[in-house]
Amino acid sequence: MPAILVKDKKDLTESLNLFDGIVDELQIDVLDGKLVPKISWPYTVGANAISELNSLLYDYTFNVELHLMLEENLSFIESVDSGKISRAVMQIESRDFEIAAKAAKNKGFLVGASAMLETSLESLESVLDIIDYVQFMCIEKIGVQGSKFNSKVIDKIKVFRQKHPQVELAVDGGVKKEHLPSLESLGVKRFAMGSAIMSSQNPVATWRELSELLTQ
Fold first, then answer.
1. In this structure, how many other beta carbons lie within 10 angstroms of the beta carbon of residue 148?
2. Residuewise pLDDT in 10s, the chain (216 residues)
3. Are strands 168-172 and 110-115 parallel, antiparallel or unpaired?
4. Is 105 in a helix, a strand, or coil?
5. Taking the complete model, does pTM exceed 0.90, yes or no?
6. Measuring CA to CA, which residue among 146, 181, 187 is closest to residue 164?
7. What DSSP state is assigned to residue 39?
8. Pick from 2, 19, 108, 179: CA 20 to 30 A from residue 64's CA?
9. Nearest in space to 75 (alpha carbons), one of 47, 38, 34, 37
10. Domain boundaries 3-214, CATH class
């Protein structure tokens, strides 16, 4: 699915319009400038803009997955509207992952735990009973679209998959067309792709091409 990282409401609206009526699901990255250096809308103008995000999403046909790269998730989870948001994937490295994950589940979200490349697999063990899927970040520094795919994630996924074959797996960060076969062979089902789609000359055509590869 397309993953978008935006600096303001106008930027978000343009990206949403691009895929309206075309995709079933889209991921929006939310960064607070604390857990990771970069910041994105709505944090660029303050948490009160979350109400604008809630209203904006109702105009579109697709479901939304939020990828929260936040130091603390709970206040965001409590403020966001569950009407058009189907999933929330949060960084396991955040301060309040467990309490925020439980709050998200109570709102009806499917909840994912996202792990940075250098984060140990052991950190995921204690939360597997409260989440629905695990997302592996494939880049060294998260929150920056255009970063290079790091193949170390392949071995990490292999180890996790062998121990937990039933857990739904997702990947995000640096994933391109050439990485899809090896990742699919490991049982990865969800692919959040930012720059591979959004930096192409025709993002919609690129998304369609990638989608066909994943359904073959």
1. 11
2. 999 998 888 999 999 999 999 999 999 999 999 999 888 888 876 656 788 888 888 889 899 999 999 999 999 999 888 788 999 999 999 999 999 999 999 999 999 999 999 999 999 999 999 999 999 999 988 877 778 999 999 999 999 999 999 999 999 999 999 999 999 999 999 999 999 999 999 999 999 999 888 865
3. unpaired
4. helix
5. yes
6. 187
7. B
8. 179
9. 47
10. alpha beta
Both tokens assigned to 80: 């966001």
Q: Which amino acid is at 27?
A: Q
DSSP state at residue 131: -
**Among 79, 72, 82, 91, which Cα is nearest to 29's?**
91
Tokens at residue 172, please? Answer: 């995000």
Residue 109's nearest CA partner among 96, 128, 123, 90 is 90
Amino acid letter at 204? V
| DSSP 8-state code for residue 23 | -
List the chain domain ranges: 3-214
Q: Which single residue is written with the structure tokens 């629905």? A: 132
d(CA 83, CA 63): 9
Q: Check residue 32 and report its DSSP letter.
A: B
Q: Which two tokens stand for residue 81?
A: 């509207």
d(CA 45, CA 168) in angstroms, rounded, equals 34
